[in-house]
Amino acid sequence: VKGYLNKIAVNARLNAFNEVFEQEALTCAQEVDSRIKQGIAGKLAGMVIAIKDNICYKGHKVSASSKILDNFTSVYSSTIVERLLAEDAVIIGRCNCDEFAMGASNENSHFGPVKNFADESRVPGGSSGGSAVAVQAGMCHAAIGTDTGGSVRQPASFCGLVGLKPTYGRVSRHGIIAYASSFDQVGPITRSIADAALLLEVMAGPDEYDSTLANKAVPSYLPDNKPVSVKKIAYLQEAISSPGVDSEVKSNLVQYIDKLRNAGHIVKPIAFELLDFLVPAYYILAMAEASSNLSRYDGVHIGYRSPAAVDLLSTYKSSRSEGFGKEVKRRIMLGTFVLSAGYYDAYFAKAQKVRRMIREKTEAILKEYDFILVPTAPEPAFPIGRMEKDPVVTYLADIFTVQASLSGVPAISLPTGNNSKGLPLGLQLLAPHFEEKELLNFSEYFL
Ligand code: GLN
């Protein structure tokens, strides 16, 4: 813990943490030490973890990197925090992120942008950008993020790490600040696949506080390192043919396809006709759900209340106007629009139908193939400042991560080297629902 605290202090300019639980982490580490000596320590003894600042931890502040949660303290812990602590993890602090997890660059934060440790003029990805940089710069052993449309996988790929989004319904969302509830999942950001597997194993499984969880037993997810049988892998042809994909991202994909073929696996291109509908369907649905989830921040029940509030209406208006940042307001307005009476069928209902088609098509591919292979992002980490200039370009870059989110299937981003500028690249594997065990096993082999 002392070593990590030192790294956190030395790298404060990266802005990865919203708060460091310094004293508490040191005390907790001493307690874990004594349990190790007594031989009664849990599975995560020795693991120092950072959590994204949208994960509730009793008695600790949680802000979702928003002014509207200024000074808000959690009155209970999320299920995943309880499970991590029960296995003797040490939680070292809460990490910066895009406000309410809305973003892909960590630039939409009330606490300012996070810098990528590989190139400080560039973004770390998002929304779990602080979590990724905390691991990338050695400020903790592993971090926990949330992934609604790529927020664990994309920052992992921008920072040269492993990022896993489990199947929707595998990990409890109880105590996670909601963005888009039918997409949100918690996932680990780690250096190794074994660490991701261990953290998933500890966090996964039924929880009486989250009714969307599957009632499925949790296996041991640790890779077994047995010989891998011949696999059938599909890759999206567009990832190689589209002009929108960076040329070094393409050659990285081609290199791994060749490697798999040389090892005897069957790797085939597929056309995904619904590709152009992935980003629009995702953003319509995610914004709609967000506009509803964020209606609870009213300046009355929790968080920030504007000093300009004089009656009920002005309390709502001024607290929300002053408390939410620009991107969050944009999404509340767009989400409210697509849900409004005159437009509901044209946008929200239509997007739900498109989601159903995307899910069915994805499931059909994953019946025929063991995995789908795609880049995690069409480009490596981009310069800080782009989100402000052109949000739509940033939305469109979610093209490869939102398929798994819309379909609910598990997906992992794996670090597959650096480009010619030394920026990390990542490839992503998608597997059928609840096949995390196979996915992690194959990932270990793949790298
Ligand atoms: N970039 C996507 C968005 O802005 C995904 C964010 C996430 O997964 N939380 O919605």
UniProtKB/TrEMBL annotation:
Recall the GO molecular function terms of this protein's record.
Answer: ATP binding; glutaminyl-tRNA synthase (glutamine-hydrolyzing) activity; transferase activity
Q: What class of enzyme is it?
A: ligase
**TM region positions:** none
Q: What is its EC number?
A: 6.3.5.6, 6.3.5.7
Keywords from UniProt, A to Z, are: Ligase
Q: Does the keyword Glycoprotein apply?
A: no
BP GO annotations: translation
Q: Which domain of life is it from?
A: Bacteria
Q: Which InterPro entries match?
A: Amidase (IPR000120), Amidase_dom (IPR023631), AS_sf (IPR036928), GatA (IPR004412)
Q: Name one GO cellular component term.
A: glutamyl-tRNA(Gln) amidotransferase complex
- Which Pfam families does the record cross-reference, listed alphabetically? Amidase
Protein name as it appears in the record:
Aspartyl-tRNA(Asn)/glutamyl-tRNA(Gln) amidotransferase subunit A
